[in-house]
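Reopening this ticket.

The earlier resolution said the output was attached, but the attachment link was broken on my side. Pasting everything inline this time so it's all in one place.
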Amino acid sequence: MTYPSFDEWRELAVRDPAAFEARRRAVIAAAIAAAPPERRERLQRLQWRIDRVRSRDSDPLVACMRLSRMMWDSVYSERGLLAQLEYLGKRWTGRTTSGLPQAQILPFKKR
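Inline output:
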């Protein structure tokens, strides 16, 4: 499948919003279909969530902000990417404490 450039997408969206939407859905479906089989269901669920956010807001900018927040939550939330990376790092190194490595703090000598 060939993907249109940004300008082609923009022109299609202005000229024929229904065709734009059909093409958008086809490209997304093709990307999900090309993913490894074990990831497809999760990608389909994620796309379903994205579509629900987009359909809930009539203002595209509001939907974009909500989707951005959803993305950042997947990174910073309690079970997000950073927490999972920290967990894997602890498992790999055998450390049970969190945070940065500790160092001895040396006092400055008074003059």
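Reporter confirms the inline version is readable. Residues 37-56 form the longest helix (20 residues). DSSP finds five helices and no strands in the chain.
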